[in-house]
Design brief:
By secondary structure, the protein is mainly beta. It folds into 2 domains: 227 residues, Sandwich (Jelly Rolls); 122 residues, no CATH class. Helix content is 0%, strand content 44%. Strands 1, 3, 4, 7, 12, 13, 14 and 16 form an 8-stranded antiparallel beta sheet that branches. Strands 2, 5, 6, 8, 9, 10, 11 and 15 form an 8-stranded antiparallel beta sheet that branches. Strands 19-20-27-22 form a 4-stranded antiparallel beta sheet, with no helix packed on it. The two termini are 31 Å apart. The N terminus is likely disordered.
Amino acid sequence: MRTFLYTAFGSLALLHAQDELAYRDFSNAPGLQAVGSAQPYGQVLRLTQAKRFQRGAAWRTDRIPVRDGVETAFRFRISQPGGRDRSADGFAFVIQNNGPEAIAGVGGSGGFAVGHRSNDASAPAIENSLAVFFDTHQNEEDESGNAVLICTNTGPKDHRWPPPRLAANWNLKIRLKDSREHEARILFVPPLLTVHLDEELVLRAPVDLARMVGPEGKAFVGFTSATGKGYANHDILDWRFRPAVTSNICSVTSEISFARCASIPEKGLCTPAAAVIDEDIPGHFHVILPAQLAWGASIPNPNGRPVSIKNPKGAACWEPASGGCGGFPGKRESEPGALRIKTENGRTYFGIVDNNLGDNEGYYEFEVEFEP
């Protein structure tokens, strides 16, 4: 499995940025191509109207650098909800390597995933894509109808429902389809992608953009949306996008956490070759645990004292080719379910639960304290 830092990122100053792309008036939007139902509506970009079975997309017509980091921010509004369950199905910010005419299915596919059910089952997903999906409809496989998800599609084998999900937040504090303006901010500092909604961190996960970019590290970026038996207007009010130039930082929080040069070169995500363990004060350890090693880190514990895990960060990825990534499955951040611990022979060992450790990428980061 793969593991990575996940803390809120600092300011934009952490990225060495090129000139920002900005769309504040979509009635005049050079370099942007609308597909399907998407069209300017006054000064905003309307991806779908409040009608049944719509699908729309809008893409930058040129590939944008994304591999080494990117930040995007946009304001959106979902209005005039109606039909089944009063609104569906949401919209997505998408990175893909197909072209500026890409679009997928209607309904729960969000315009980026394989067609949902019999009404659109033949529609293929956008291959080699990663989507941050603002989901407003609860299908039977969902935990709510007010969620943000990170989804991926690689090749034809991933053309299944639901699309592979790297991370999800099913319990947003705001209501996406309340007809109010909201702002989303998405920051990718390899390998972590974080999503803020109205200035609150709502989602974070490690992602691998290897299949979403061309040899120059560039991809098409834009938005997709879809409606089904439920519908709404899905409007993008403005959009700012800032790519980053090459950086030697693998993960960035308020402090630099791990250098890319320490990563195993053939891994798609930053993966340390060995554990890093620091005892900053007696009995308090800071641990970076590589995802690909069995019992990859240990601390001295001659008396066999119980330990507690503090401030866990990261998620783990396994089977990178199929997009298998996850955080601490089925657990809160304070309860890392994929982390295993054992104490024997005067030491406490830490490892990651997985059957194919050698294929894993990434790392966990956490603090360890001896319990009283």
